[in-house]
Write a structure and sequence with these properties.
10-stranded mixed beta sheet, Rossmann fold, 22% strand, two-stranded antiparallel sheet, 2 domains, alpha/beta, 12 strands
Length: 280
């Protein structure tokens, strides 16, 4: 993937890491984006307080990977696991950064996941986070995007439990006509051009009249958008239904899209990036 030089919207990518297969896929997505935008990548490993508190319960047990042993799950055993996981994910981060020829840094924080991610976030960050992070304490239907609206992050990308693999070469951007939607289309256009992906732009709520304008908004975006597929969905088809059918590599949404739509789309398991503009 060729680099996009001097992008002013995102200054760093902050990706949460653990040793799960989902985290490895998330790291690949984050490293590819960091290489695309020529920005540094920071890996964040959190010693989750919720897991430590669970280990303090008398009912907590650990089952070996082979299924041949069941052990008491103690705080000491959890902390030992944390130390070994931190070593493994740091190596994975360094390997991913070396493959993409990007700078990387690694942070370890102790506490609850949502709080520590917020504390680690800088202005203009793109937060890349697994939907599994902090799952022990999150209510059903938790809105990750809404939570991080209180930070200075420029965008949030989540990745769920995609089982079928992302084999499509398509990027989808949803365009509502807002400033955040314009920024989202610009970023999606850059990613599509540099990654040689096809770009589909879904027009929402009468945004048709702005389609010509957005094609001219940025040279790189214009190049992608001119050859993009611009579509209005049929009244009986939702954005989430279309995305589930196409199964693109990435979906880019503006922050003004409704919370319900953002949540339903994020539940497809496909990487979803929500973009906002300064001052929102």
């Amino acid at each position: 993937m060729s680099a996009v030089k001097n992008d002013p919207g995102i200054g760093r990518i902050l990706v949460t890491l653990d040793t799960s297969p989902e985290s490895r896929a998330l790291l690949d997505v984050a490293a590819n984006l960091a290489a695309c935008f020529e920005i540094p990548l920071t890996g964040l490993f959190i010693e989750d307080q919720d897991i430590l508190e669970f280990a303090d319960l008398p009912i907590a047990r650990e089952i070996s990977m082979t299924g041949k042993g069941i052990y008491d799950l103690t705080r000491e055993r959890v902390q030992s696991h944390f130390r070994s996981q931190a070593v493994a994910v740091r190596r994975a981060l360094q390997s991913a950064a070396a493959r993409q020829r990007i700078d990387c840094a690694f942070e370890i924080r102790k506490g609850r996941s949502d709080i520590e991610i917020t504390a680690a976030t800088r202005e203009s960050d793109l937060i890349v986070v697994s939907s599994r992070v902090g799952a022990l304490s999150r209510p059903r239907g938790y809105d990750y995007f809404g939570h991080f609206e209180s930070t200075e992050a420029s965008a949030v990308l989540t990745y769920g439990d995609e089982k079928e693999g992302l084999t499509s070469d398509r990027i989808i951007a949803v365009f509502t006509g807002s400033a955040a939607a314009r920024e989202g289309v610009r970023l999606a256009g850059q990613i599509a051009v540099r990654g040689r992906n096809r770009l589909t732009i879904i027009l929402v709520d009468g945004a048709d009249d702005l389609a010509v304008e957005i094609k001219r908004a940025h040279p790189t975006t214009g190049q992608a958008a001119t050859g993009a597929e611009w579509i209005n969905l049929n009244s009986g088809t939702s954005i989430a239904e279309h995305i589930t059918t196409v199964r693109p590599r990435l979906v880019v949404l503006p922050s003004d899209l409704s919370q319900i739509d953002r949540r339903v789309i994020s539940e497809t398991g496909i990487p979803v990036m929500v973009v906002r503009t300064r001052g929102e």
